[in-house]
Amino acid sequence: QVHLVESGGGVVQPGGSLRLSCVADGFAVGTYRMSWFRQDPGKARLLVATIGTAGTTYYVDSVQDRFTISRDNVKNAIYLRMNSLKPDDTAMYYCNAEEHWGQGTQVTVSS
Predict the structure, then answer these.
(1) Residue 97 CB contacts under 8 Å (≥ 6 apart), including other chains
(2) Percentage helix, strand, coil, to 5, in the chain?
(3) Which secondary structure element, helix H or strand E, spans residue 46, and what is its range?
């Protein structure tokens, strides 16, 4: 059975940084396209960043050059390093492995 567990969210001031983690169980993260999504209450869940099985990465324009997605096959985890955070980055962040989802971790950017 596949499980994804996110952690690392919290409250941070504008301009600050956070690193989200997603630990996988039941499959190898290196064999799936892995992604981070985010969702505001009442709105659609939107893609933030993706890392393919070959290590190719993709970022939406709004986080390009501020966020970095990475993968650790030994720890069977993926990460999202978020720098220069803005209030607009406030959302619930979800780890995704194709059809599988984690429970989410809240990120709040506020002064």
Answers:
(1) 2, 4, 24, 27, 29, 32, 33, 34, 35
(2) 10, 50, 40
(3) strand 46-51
Q: Which distant-in-sequence residues (6+ apart) come within 8 Å of 43 by Cβ?
A: none
Least Cα distance to 6 among 106, 91, 85 occurs for 106
Burial 72-98 (b: 16+ CB within 10 A, else e): eeeebbbbbebeebeeebbbbbbbbbe
- Count of Cβ atoms closer than 10 Å to residue 45 Cβ: 16
Q: Could you give the CA distance from residue 69 to residue 49 in angstroms, rounded to a whole number?
A: 7
pLDDT digits (tens, 9 = 90+) for 11-60: 999 999 999 999 999 999 999 999 999 999 899 999 999 999 999 999 99
State whether residue 107 is helix, strand or coil.
strand
